[in-house]
Amino acid sequence: LGFFPANFVGYYREKTKFNRAFCGLIFMLLLPCLYQLFANSVSIRELFSILPFQVIMLISPFGIRSMFRRIELETKLDQANEQIRELSKREERVRIARDLHDTLGHTLSLLTLKSQLIQRLATSDPERTRLEAKEMETSSRAALKQVRELVSDMRTVTMTEELANIQHILKTGNITFQYEGDEDFSAISPVTQNIISMCMREAVTNIIKHSKATHCAITISQFADKMRIVIRDDGKGAAKEKTFGNGLRGMEERLMLIEGGLTLSVHNGTVLTLTIPLIKKAE
Question: What is the pTM assigned to this prediction?
Fold first, then answer.
């Protein structure tokens, strides 16, 4: 009959209750054996014949308890996996929204500048107007392609390509551009380059839309353990240092993915500094 209480002892989840019940089981199993041994009702050999059954009775509570604990852990693991899936979906939605904001904001700013230029040139220079309209068509098609690639998570932009895009959009906005720094970014991983490119694009888009600047300078410096990117303009400057809108907040979130950071300051315009740690690959 000891198998029945031994089975139910394992149902106790709390360690204190389990230990008390297990001690009670030991006492219940040993007391009859000791009583019959001292009463000379059975011999020691007969007691040894039931010893394997008693060992099984003493082990079974731990087996039952382990089984319930495993079931409980599996339930918690399923709940954690479900929560991770929900968080992954939420993060993916945020990422897509951020990418769309950065990409479309850049392209729509370019189209806005082109349309303003066309309005000014419509009567004075029809041939230039036709060329600018053709460029608007090309830019809109490129934007559509970028959106499709972003949604399918296939798009990666190198820093060299982004610098060329930046020069083009600044030229369209009648803003002079100056670049200083390295030309070779092959040692930087594609993921890091893509994140940096998106951040530079958002910064230049903000310059065109808000700063009323006439000059923009970008300096990229690579050190042994980090990269520093300084983006300056001679515009009216931010209304308040460390004032983060949606664009800057999105840049900060992107940089956090690669342990980077940004600082915003006002000194004869706006100065945005991006700092990204670099990881050296082993030979």
Answer: 0.49
